[in-house]
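User: Just a sanity check before I run the rest of the batch. Below are the structure tokens for the first item. I only need the designed sequence back.
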């Protein structure tokens, strides 16, 4: 995802008076800027950094939806709307089948050890930001059986 695209979409949401979208995009932009400052890249923010920030925001939003009490329908609806907007901008993640195929082809030597810790260490370096950590963990556990 491109940082300028986020900014343009936020301006469009402001013009359309779409408060939920504007607030969501604003928080994503703030997270991206924080990541950029932390890494010393205030100018020309790389797309990879934007994707990482969006993934962090999506994880936070997903946790809000999951932990919201069932009787708070209004709040749950608001959190779900926020998550849906974030997911529009999130990079496409690999499926469990794609992860398994990638692990068995690229990391065949490590998989043979059946040591989950070693496999996770090798795989996470390669797949971080490309696949959900839970999916990777489930696939590795399956391969270690």
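Assistant: Here's the designed sequence for the first item:
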């Amino acid at each position: 995802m491109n940082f300028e695209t986020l900014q343009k979409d936020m301006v469009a949401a402001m013009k359309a008076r779409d408060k939920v979208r504007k607030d969501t995009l604003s928080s994503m932009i703030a997270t991206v800027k924080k990541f950029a400052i932390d890494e010393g890249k205030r100018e020309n923010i790389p797309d990879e950094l934007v994707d990482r920030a969006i993934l962090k925001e999506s994880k936070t939003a997903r946790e809000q939806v999951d932990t919201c009490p069932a009787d708070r329908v209004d709040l749950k609806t608001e959190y779900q709307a926020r998550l849906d907007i974030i997911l529009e901008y999130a990079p496409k993640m690999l499926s469990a089948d794609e992860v398994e195929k990638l692990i068995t082809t690229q990391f065949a030597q490590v998989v043979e050890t059946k040591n989950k810790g070693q496999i996770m260490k090798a795989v996470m370096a390669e797949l971080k930001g490309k696949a959900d950590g839970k999916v990777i963990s489930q696939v590795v556990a399956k391969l270690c059986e």
